Every structure is written in structure tokens, then in C-alpha cells.
Please model this.
Amino acid sequence: MAWLQTELRLPPRRRGFHLITSEVEAAIEGLEKLRVGILHVFIQHTSASLSINENADPDVPRDLEMAFNQIARENFPYVHTMEGPDDMPAHVKASMIGSSVTVPIKDGGLCLGTWQGIYLCEHRDRGGPRRLVLTLHGE
Amino acid sequence: MAWLQTELRLPPRRRGFHLITSEVEAAIEGLEKLRVGILHVFIQHTSASLSINENADPDVPRDLEMAFNQIARENFPYVHTMEGPDDMPAHVKASMIGSSVTVPIKDGGLCLGTWQGIYLCEHRDRGGPRRLVLTLHGE
Amino acid sequence: MAWLQTELRLPPRRRGFHLITSEVEAAIEGLEKLRVGILHVFIQHTSASLSINENADPDVPRDLEMAFNQIARENFPYVHTMEGPDDMPAHVKASMIGSSVTVPIKDGGLCLGTWQGIYLCEHRDRGGPRRLVLTLHGE
Model:
């Protein structure tokens, strides 16, 4: 039985949806020793989020970015605007998409479906580096 | 202390929100022995999702389907359209609703509220069978 | 290694987004003894939800409420309307935002980012008291 917790610092990325599955896998040591467990991935920010979605066609993250921009529009009578027009929609998307993903562990690896990848959803125009907390628990 | 992991294969369902609480409960052996714990339910697909919502009035899942269709419209200038007009909205809904639900375990059962049920949200017109990974951990 | 589970009853709050981080922290005994772990916060209702978002500017929760009201409108041809025009949009928001949040535990405290807080998102006009189940697990 083991608990493992580590911080993963992601470099700045442009606004949009970015696959980070391999960065997450590289950051967690001891994964291959677990027969069963859960990986919890948490982002310590409120203007970016984490999601699991299609990992193959690069048009999918582009379309996701476009769709969420249309759902949580910048052109809206927000009061909290001092950090720019992209800030408040970023908070809306963060609550909509969520600050964590959890993935089952099976036989030493992430038990994702064939077409699933973990995404960093960067909702700010200039979000800067992002800090994740990875917590792995299993046996 | 126990970890239990099992796969649950759901038969194809039409597009919409479908209660699967009893199928999930039937699939997890040993639940009744746990005093406290967490059940993690994960879907290995990116065009369907999992949610917890009202389990009583069949109009609720119908209205949920209608509302999410209006929020993530098919009539939108998506680039990724080769899998049909229902595909990209399905990915948007998957990121919005999420690929997993977690439920506390208490005294040998799911600790859901009276009106809560677990939903498979099938976002494709012909989604086919869906594969879930159930991971139960507790003592 | 420890499991701790407790119920937290929140008093009625008006419709909107309400910070509950300190109420959650006050309700979990033994947190300070854990080096590493996960806190699972679950709401046993389907017309309110839980989220993590910006904890500083009170305009943010006001804007979140306004934005989600615009995304899940009351003015929509819902069938399930017997509980009032605010009920079905509340269910839509519950599926969109989610019924639980999970927070990593590190060195005896919640491992939240500087600007992160836990929100009760009350989607009903008169939602009444709300029941949360807190499940803490770690070592």
C-alpha cells in the first residue's frame, strides 16, 4: 500500500486545450508497481482547468476551445473585469470543467480508454506556468 | 482495508441521460462489507459522460438532454466533423459533465441522497456499448 | 492510515455561490495528523453543486452566478416545471458543475492554491439546508 504525492510545474502555454498525459505519467514515480489504485490530478489555479478528452485529432482541442469560448463569452456584463476580459470567462470555465481529474490505476498504468488523454485547459491569454498536485494511492 | 476494481460493460443506449445506479451497485462485489470508503466510477470514452442527478421524474433526464443540446449546439462551425454532427458536441459535453463520478461509501452502501442517481450521459446518436471502470476502496 | 467520514449540515443560503472552505475545514477532525491524503466533499442534493474557484474578490461569485444563469436559462421549454422555474436549471447546473470536489491533503492541511476556495453553489431560490458528506483518507 502506498501514497505518493508530487508537484508538477507546467511551463506557460497559450490559451487553449493541451494534452499533458505524458508529462503527468513522467512525473509519477512508482506507478508501475501498483496493481490497483487511483491517480488524482489537481490544478492549484482558478483560471485553468483539467479534463479528459479525445487524444488523437488536433482539431478536437481547437474545437473545444472555440466551443467553450462561445458558451462562456467574453462579451458579457461582468463586474470583475480588472484582470482583463479573459479572466472572468476563465473562472466560469474552471467551475464548468473542474479543477481535478481522477484516473483508475490498473496493472501498473493509467487505465484510460484508447482515445482518452489528460488535458490542461488554459483559459487565460497569458496564464503563465501552472502548478499541479499529483496524488497517487494504491497497492 | 480493501481495493476492488471491476469493469462494467453497458449495452448500447440511445442518446440521452440514463440512470445506471442499480447496474453499478450490482457490479461491485463486497460493497456491503465496507464501513467507510469511496467508489470511483470512470467511463473510458470521450463522447459520453457520467453524472449524478435527480432519480425520480423521467422528465428530468429528458430536460437535461434538451438543455445540454442547446448549450453545446450541433449547429456550430466545428472543424472536427468527419464523425458526424453529433460528435464534437459530444466531446464538449464530456468535458463539461466529466468522465467520472465519486460516491462516498457508508455502512455497506452508496451514501447518495434520497433523490440522487448515477447517470450515463450518452452524447452520440449511435454510441454503442460503453465501458466503465469501477474502483472501490475502503475498510 | 486513517479513514474519517463526517456529515456537514449547511444552513440555508440564498441562491448564488458561497465560500465554505472554513466550514469544511472546521468539520474535519484529524486533518492536522495527515502527511498525505485526499479529502472528498460530496453534496447529497441535485439542485446545488460544489466547486473550487477564486476566493478573494466578492464580485467573482456574483459574476459566476450571473454567468451560469445565462448559460442554463430559466426561460427554456422545460417539461419538469412543477417545482418552479428555478428547479430544472438547477439540475442542469448540478450536472455541469458537479456534486463533489476532491482536494489533496499535504502536511496536515488542504493543499489548495493561494486563490482557491471551496464553494457551495446554491441553484435554488429557496434551497433550504444542504447536507454534505466529507470523507478524508490518508496517512
About this structure: The mean pLDDT of chain B is 97. The longest strand of chain B covers residues 2-10. Chain B is about 20% helix and 40% strand.
